[in-house]
Amino acid sequence: MIRLGLAWLGLAWLGLAWRQDQTSPEVLSREHSPANPLGTAMKLAQFLQTQMDRLLEDWEEAALELARESLGEESISLRDHAREMLQFIIQDLLTAQTTEESTRKSLGNAVIPVSFAGEQHGLGRLEQGMTLLQVILELRALRERVTRLWGDEQQGLTTEDIYDLVRFNEAIDQLIANSVSSYSARKDQDKRLFEAVLNVSPDPFALFDPDGKLLVLNKPMANLVGTPAQDHVGKTALELGLAFATQVHDAIAATVATSQPQRGDFHGHLPSGRELYFDSQFIPVCNDRDEVEAVALMSRNITARKKAEHQVWRSANFDSLTGIPNRRLFQDRLGQCLLEAERGDRSFALLFIDLDRFKEANDRLGHKAGDRLLEQVAKRLAKNVRTVDTVARLGGDEFTVILKNTGREGAMRAAKALLADLERAFDVDSQRVHLSGSIGLTLFPDDGKDGDQLMHNADQAMYAAKKQGGHQIQIYQSWMEPNESERMRLHRELGDAIREDQLEVYYQPIIDIRTGAISRAEALLRWNHPDKGQLTPATFLIIAEPDGMMDSINSYVLKQAVTCSLRWRNQEDEPFPIHINESPASFFTPTLVEQWWARLMESDLEGSRITIELTPISLSNLVACGIDPVESCGLADLRLRLAIDDFGIEPFSIAALQDCQVGSIKVGRTLINKTGQDGDADRILKAIIGMAHAIDIQVVAEGVEREAQLQFLAREGCDYAQGYLFSKPLCQDDFEALLGRLRQ
User: Fold this and answer.
1) Shortest CA distance to 378 belongs to which of 426, 448, 307?
2) Cα separations (Å) of 377 from 13, 398, 471, 480, 670?
3) Is the dihedral of CA 16, 18, 19, 23 positive or negative?
4) CATH 3.20.20.450 intervals, the chain
5) Residues 254, 210 contacting (CB under 8 angstroms)
6) Has domain 201-301 been given CATH number 3.40.630.30?
7) Which of 50, 169, 180, 332 is most enclosed, with most CB atoms within 10 A?
8) Which pLDDT tens digit goes with each residue over 85-121?
9) Whole-structure pTM over 0.85, yes or no?
10) Are 715 and 701 in contact (CB under 8 A)?
């Protein structure tokens, strides 16, 4: 089609010249002969050279009319290749050409050199967003401007002028061919690359038309429905068989209606039964009239993240041993039950259950068998209540039950059924174990209007049942109030201890194995109880964690550690490094980052050398929740460091050590106790040290008590050690005195 148009234009000019000059065919044929190959083209070539700027300026106006939005207003973007193309035409005009070559060229059989300017023009216009039609029209505009100005300049064309125009049109043809060829080749390449990217991407992608019919999809999207991609083109989301097809269909319709992106999470199962979660975005694809001509669906498989989030939530809300709700989830459900009962003017019952003779069974069978016994108890309790009720384990052998929409008589029947089922013998490791339970029962609203009061009264009733020999149910009565359980009393006294400065931080030296010097210390909390003497954290932190006291305790420990770090500077005036432990419960609070920042700011951390020791499960929970301790809390700027406690005991992702800029890991005493005996523990510890050093992480051995353990650690290149072989935990004054003597 292009060459037909050019031939017609050439014939039109030929007819005009014949009428004006009455030139014979013989003259025309003679002047086309190679006897004067250059003279016939010099005239037009010279015109193009002298009028170059004028031609470009005139053509620029036409090009802008074609694609102003793509090209913009800057002349440099319009003339990027036009000058080179005119130079190519001039060079072609000045190149000798016989009649035979001209004939072959008109038939498309000539060997024509590739125009680099034409190729660059096509590629450039593709990058600027022009269509292929606009590219061709742009070059036709160039042809029109040259021929019009040339005709005006000549005031009538001679045979030589017509021959020049034929040669000029042939050059324009070649530019169009080269430009279109490069444009199409790059377009095809982009399409192949686009398809390759879509197919290698693990994330599903699809393109729908405005009616919701599928245009394009990649292999991951096709895999969701289990059949080849080509089988789905032309189908709607509702016809694809996806579990969330209705939501996809509605999102496409909303994208088309609003011309705005849509986003949502989708959850469903594949035909194979596999459960999947997707974070999906619907992006409108608009034409030059801002009309939505397609909708791109890009989905990211977030199944692993969702499962990790669920696991974090489950770890925070369910008892790891028995699988039933823990204290945290129990308190949440108790709060919900209170709201429902108040709105509906209903009653419900709360049972507090403590196992009788469990300690004796646990001591006789061993702790592992005792854990299996608790699992069986939890199953029996859960089996004897309705699905709307809640059975929870508070800790140890204490359980609670919420009986919804129940009065006093119904609660007593349920409690008796539970008590009777606990009387049946348990089979644990081929041994029959007999237990019973002491149950305290309280009712809302008769015995209390809030959760704390109901819990307190149920605990009092349980304690009364225990005092009377156990194996019975006691309904709360006011005379039971003086009987305060050990747990409740300790909880109350811990609140007093925080306010009355009964807490104290002790410090245990951490030794540099290579030099024998005290390199750092671990801060360990102690409670100087007025009646019970000094208590360790294992005794009272389990009480503090569920009731919101941990943040105050953690703040106190951090403040004391910062003060000592700055006070015990070395001869180079560097702060003394101190490690502190962070409660695992802290990592389930939604305001973790804010609480951390507040503690750090209050403690004037700047300039100190504090390392926070996290358990592997705590750091895993942080990572699973998407919290980056370094980025979120600005810990690097505050010179706060992270370490992992009890490494090697719980499973953990090694990659997270580097992602969270962990500086050291502490091997727990359970593994250290078995080292130095040429057993599996030695090989495991050796592997841990090698792995840590390979990623530039230091290793601290905890609980070192024997010389053989220290010798093994030294041989394997362990960095630091702490334990009773060197020193027990010391109060602040005693540790300061020890540190001073060793430094002197």
Assistant:
1) 426
2) 105, 11, 15, 27, 29
3) positive
4) 491-743
5) no
6) no
7) 169
8) 787 888 878 887 777 777 666 555 555 555 677 777 7
9) no
10) no
